UniProtKB/TrEMBL annotation:
<feature type="disulfide bond">
    <location>
        <begin position="119"/>
        <end position="128"/>
    </location>
</feature>
<dbReference type="InterPro" id="IPR051216">
    <property type="entry name" value="Teneurin"/>
</dbReference>
<feature type="signal peptide">
    <location>
        <begin position="1"/>
        <end position="47"/>
    </location>
</feature>
<feature type="domain" description="EGF-like">
    <location>
        <begin position="95"/>
        <end position="129"/>
    </location>
</feature>
<keyword id="KW-0245">EGF-like domain</keyword>
<keyword id="KW-1015">Disulfide bond</keyword>
<keyword id="KW-0677">Repeat</keyword>
<dbReference type="Pfam" id="PF23106">
    <property type="entry name" value="EGF_Teneurin"/>
</dbReference>
<protein>
    <recommendedName>
        <fullName>EGF-like domain-containing protein</fullName>
    </recommendedName>
</protein>
<keyword id="KW-0732">Signal</keyword>
<dbReference type="InterPro" id="IPR000742">
    <property type="entry name" value="EGF"/>
</dbReference>
Amino acid sequence: LPSAAAAAAAAVVGAARAWAFQARIVAMDRPALLAVIVLILAPGGKASCPNQCSGHGACGNENVCTCDDGWVVMPDCSERQCPYDRAWADRAYSDDAAHTLAECSGAGLCDRAQGTCTCFDGYTGAACQRARCPNDCSGHGLCITLGALGRLEGNDYSARPGVGGDGIGPEYTNWDADHVTMCNCDWGFFGPDCSLRMCPKGDDPLTVDQGYRAISVRLTGDGTGLGGRFRISFLGFTAEFDAAASAITSNVCEDRFQGLGNVESVSCSTMNYGANGGSEMNATFTAWPRQPMENNIHFHSGNPAIEDFSCDISSVTVTGGSDDSVVCELYDVSASNVQEYELCSSRGSCDFVSGICFCQEGFTGEACSDISYEVSSSNAL
């Protein structure tokens, strides 16, 4: 028969188990029973966590590991955590709100031993947070995010439309700004993966009595003169001018515009404008490059929109007035019935692999812009 002491101990243990699992013990017995439970579960009064948290965390009083940064509760902090970024797809948590943080952005598998993501096809980055550009842009372009594309290649603007910008394109800040990408092709290449070559471009030789594209640039302020410099950008190329009216001459205008890689020749006229030291330039574009300096983002067909030109006035100063009064306005001078600027001059087929034009019968030249014999309405193609 058990002794009286053994029977008492058994009763205490039984009561502890009953309290722990059934919560039926009265309040007055809890302190004693808690002491017994601690002694049973953690001899010596010290917490005992699985694998001592693998040396990558701290063991709490309830025998639960609190892992160091970069380690995961599994449950002994023995596995590494992978980088997090916004999930490509997940369940919305409120109206128009989704894309919470997810390990490997939900587009890859975590290597727990190394703490690195193995991305699924089409994704890249430490957290698989960026879409991979098709064919890595075929070696003829740069894979760029939507956010960077807007800042670097977007139309310049300001809070006052038509006044002038600051040289920086629109700021795109939606969740996908640094996730979605596209190819920004080298000059002369286009297509989603920059694999297509542009053929020479020219004016259709069968369209006659056409003029040239012309614009006006007017720079003004509210003082007695302008200083500093301003910049005119056109489809990826930028020309810089002195802002002083005395520095704006026809020769300077022609030299700066013809220095743009996508302009072949231009004719300018200039004048002072107003009584506050302003100036005006009229630029007529008489030829575009035979070999186009264009790509999948920047291109035109001979009549570029006025919005394709922008004016950066962030470095212009005003003498005897406010720098905030500076205005750079761009106007259409001639924007109708202008000469075309088309691949193979619309008189041939472009081989997008070689970038060579195959001219229709009766037309010749690098861009098929020359007539090889008299073409009438009866034999025109």
